[in-house]
From TrEMBL, chain A:
This is Glycine betaine/proline transport system permease protein. Coiled coil: none annotated. Residues 93-272 form the ABC transmembrane type-1 domain. Belongs to the binding-protein-dependent transport system permease family. The keyword Transmembrane helix applies. It comes from Loktanella fryxellensis. It is a multi-pass membrane protein. The chain crosses the membrane at residues 47-66, 73-91, 97-119, 140-167, 220-242, 249-268. Gene3D superfamilies: MetI-like. Keywords: Cell membrane, Membrane, Transmembrane, Transmembrane helix, Transport. InterPro entries: MetI-like (IPR000515), MetI-like_sf (IPR035906). One of its GO terms (biological process) is choline transport. It comes from the Bacteria. It is found in: Cell membrane.
Automatic annotation (TrEMBL), chain B:
This is Quaternary amine transport ATP-binding protein. CDD domains: ABC_Pro_Gly_Betaine (cd03294). The complex is probably composed of two ATP-binding proteins, two transmembrane proteins and a solute-binding protein. PROSITE patterns: ABC_TRANSPORTER_1, ABC_TRANSPORTER_2, CBS.
Amino acid sequence: MSPADLITIPFDDWINAFVRGWLVPNFRPVFRAAQVPVTVVLNNLNAFLLFVPMILTTAAFALAAWRYAGRGIAIFTILGFAFIDMIGLWPETMTTLAMIVTSVLFCALIGLPLGILAARSDTFWRILRPVLDVMQTIPSFVYLVPIVMLFGVGMAPGIIATIIFAIPPMVRLTNLGIRNVRGDLTEAARAFGSTEWQMLWDLQIPLALRTILAGLNQTLMLALSMVVIAALIGAGGLGLIVNTGLGRLDVGGATAGGVGIVILAIVLDRITQGLGEGSKAGTLSVGQVLTRTLRGRGAAPVDATVTGPVARN
Amino acid sequence: MTDKITVKNLFKIFGEAPDAALQMLGTGATKEDILDATGATVAVQDASFSVAEGEIFVVMGLSGSGKSTLVRLLNGLIPATFGQILIDGQDVVQTRGEALREIRRNTITMIFQHFALFPHWSVADNVAYGLKVKGVPATERRDRAMAVLDQVGLAPWADSLPGDLSGGMQQRVGLARGLASDPQVLLMDEPFGALDPLIRREMQDELLTLQKTLKKTIVFITHDLNEALLLGDKIAIMKDGRFVQIGTAQDIVSRPADDYVQAFVADIDRGRVFTAGDVSSDPVTAQLHGDSAETTLRRMEDASLDALYVLDGDTVSGLVTHRDLSAALHRDGPGDATLTPSLITDFTTVDEGTYLHELYGPAGIGLPIAVTDGDDRLTGVVAPEAVLAQLDNEAAAAPAPRMEDAR
Ligand SMILES: Nc1ncnc2c1ncn2[C@@H]1O[C@H](COP(=O)(O)OP(=O)(O)O)[C@@H](O)[C@H]1O
Ligand SMILES: [Mg+2]
């Protein structure tokens, strides 16, 4: 005797009916249109990265690594990128990089405002939180099917799957960073008559920046981990090399693709981590971080004496 | 003096059902009853007071008595449940959104217990914050910030980060930030509470010095009665969200409204509350060139005094004691004895506002102390016993307070 003897639920049929019978016919054009910006950004970035000579790209990454992560990582970058080039995977690596950057860009564009809203409204956060939990815990293979049905196959759907998978840390840590800004500071901002926007820009984002950048780093890592899975639905790059290798039981090919992903992951991780730590517990303004990012290490000398905002009161 | 702030029947109830709580308050329920019955916290109940322009109004009470809530009601950081807060006639309780922000930008600023300086901005940028919010251009902001920093003696630190300064210096920055936009009202929530006692004294004196020229209307919160008595033109004692007494320092100390206030007052330094004016009596005098030793001696006996002041016209020339005069009379005979040989010219003069703790020394000599006005005219005399009597904690020993000369 089991519950199934009494009643069986055709759960899969319901989902099928919902997705096939309602969502796809009614909203397919909407979803198709939604992937246009992703496609535009991705194609341009991909074309650009493939156009720039390998030497130049490597130099740029090595320089960034040297500034934010130290000399060791800079040397690793040069050797690693040279290795990728020598095993003939440079174009695929650039395509993967374009996909990663595009995903992270959209994660930031969507995640930052969501995180800010979540920090400002407990109700919104209560609704959003389980959604994020679900997004992070559902095995990504599960939503590949509806994504293919709604968006089709190709690069853009692969990136959309990546965005869904990688966005939660961006939202979570933006929310956390802003909520952790000392209450008396936001109260002071209010007491001086600042608007919510002024407070966000002058106080909350700068003080949350370190946490937000940590979120960005995590998002980046999650996006990298989706490279192979996204390739299943038509995204190219290194993921495709791995999948092809897998399909043909070509250990060499799969490993080569895997090594490329690992090298890219290490370089990107270290650079973005260095960027976050450089912002010294959020004591830099957004403008300072932007100039830092553009100009590199020549940041204001006062940084060295700064302590975090949390320890004092 | 005109009232800058007038508060009428102000209530703040935190929680779900403020109306039910308000109704229960109307029927005489206590804060605890209401918390049990409705889960609502009564933070401020039925506060009514007014603050005159240029006055320091101190709210004193223990932790949890509702002081912080009260001060935040005044600039609308916390919305009131019921009541009126008129600032220059405009009701803050009814003001919302941009109009409320306007008031905060132009009329009322606030100074916080833990300074609440922005750690990622320089001292000068912190000071200029209110101006930035108002949209004042950067160079003008900087000039104004430097001027105010100069006023609080921190100009050399303009480009440091707040974290590099000591607590006292940080609060000076907080004060400068509050003053930079030239508000009319300053709200100060235990501004010196986080500072060491020595620094606190220094800041209190500095505030009083600044206030002499600035003449801001200040609502100052403290849990330290000595601080309240030192700074307050008017003092409100708060308990469980209610004002139990409002009055001058002298009112509070000499006539505590109930046992609660009495308990506070019991161990304060009365010498820093009462002034020479509070304990002086009308002078009984003699004229140096008009009165003989004999008449003077008789006048002294009539008033049962041991000594009195001798005037030459309007100016005080010295004092004579009963003992010296009787000796002179005995020596020179009633007809010839004048006041001059017995005159003591080494005497102490103070003005009405001098605090009693400064009179301990002179009173110890045992001679009366002359109280003079700005033109050096004798307006009163403080008997040494009066100083000592006032130090006695018995409230009964204090003279009736004189409201009009509060500080
Ligand atoms: N935001 C709030 N929500 C609920 N209760 C509060 C809130 N703020 C203060 N209270 C309560 O109101 C009462 C007065 O608090 P407060 O004004 O901070 O007192 P004080 O500043 O005199 O220490 C306390 O019982 C406190 O617990
Ligand atoms: Mg408080």
